[in-house]
Amino acid sequence: MTDFSAEHRRLIDAVAERPGAQIAEAAVAYDHDGRPMEGYRAHDAAVAGPKPAVIIVHDWTGLREYPKARAQMLARLGYYAFAADLYGTGRRFEDHQSAAAEAGKYYGDLALMRARVRAAYDVVANDPAVDASRIVVIGYCFGGSAALEFARTGAPLAGTVAFHARLVAHEPADVAAITGAVLICTGGADPVVPDEAVAAFQDELRTRPDLDWQVITYSGAEHGFTLPGGAYHPAADARSWRELTAFLDEVF
After folding, report:
1. Given the DSSP bridges, would you call strands 181-187 and 159-163 parallel, antiparallel or unpaired?
2. What pLDDT score was predicted for residue 83?
3. CB 3.0-4.6 Å disulfide test: which of 96, 154, 161, 251 passes with 177?
4. Are strands 35-44 and 80-83 parallel, antiparallel or unpaired?
């Protein structure tokens, strides 16, 4: 079992482990165009049969402890959870300057960002423990943006969820191919995603009258409101987690 820090263990333990649960975890090696990647899988081995799956895309620091903690939480709910690796094996960043530089490579090349999520999706969809007809992609900050970009590819998703993501509106609109529902949880005091960016993104979603989407804004919540640290907003984190679990109940 991963030796989670106290702050991440508190997140995990907020979700009760079901009686008889057998949470199995493993590092998963895969690749994208020859670049080695290392994801993280967690699921309840006591739950028989193929499971609905949730792919979790990390924030701009890479696949560190936080997305793995979220995977553990989702595994306790009975889902197959896979924390994707968009940067490549060993590319993890402690300081914001390095993380911003790395994330910027993908914001500047959205095709690459989408392809890296696709590589993780293919790993999950081909796992016999997964019901490939029931896959949701979620992400935090950079990962939320990546999840939304992947949804634009037309991948057969049950849904897409973004937490405090940079909302990148496309001109012309590029939402025609999205499958499944969309949930966006954003902070009402987020300087990275001001009201104008939220409005522009919503306007793009409105070009698809048939698309099922929600944008939920949390008062007082800044950028990264679910991440342990300075901007952490307990109420917004708890509320957005409840929105996520309700969303998964609905789309699965």
Report:
1. parallel
2. 98
3. 154
4. antiparallel
Angle 128-131-137 (CA atoms, 0-180°, nearest 5)?
A: 110
CA distance 62 to 175: 27
Distance CA(194)–CA(44), nearest Å, equals 39
Q: Is the predicted pLDDT of residue 2 greater than 90, yes or no?
A: no
Query: DSSP per residue over 13-51, as a string?
Result: HTSPPPTT--EEEEEEEEEETTEEEEEEEEEETTS-S-E
Instruction: Write the DSSP assignment of the chain as a string of letters.
Output: -----HHHHHHHHTSPPPTT--EEEEEEEEEETTEEEEEEEEEETTS-S-EEEEEEE--TT-S-HHHHHHHHHHHHTT-EEEE--SS-TT---SSHHHHHHHHHHHHT-HHHHHHHHHHHHHHHHT-TTEEEEEEEEEEETHHHHHHHHHHTTT---SEEEEES------SS---TT--SEEEEEEETT-SSS-HHHHHHHHHHHTT-TT--EEEEEETT--TTTTSSSTT--HHHHHHHHHHHHHHHHHH-
Task: Render pLDDT for 155-181 as a digit per residue (tens, 0 to 9).
Answer: 999 999 999 999 999 999 999 999 999
Give the distance, in angstroms, between the CA of residue 28 and the centroid of all CA atoms in the same chain: 17
| Angle, vertex CA 223, rays to CA 70 and CA 114, nearest 5 | 65
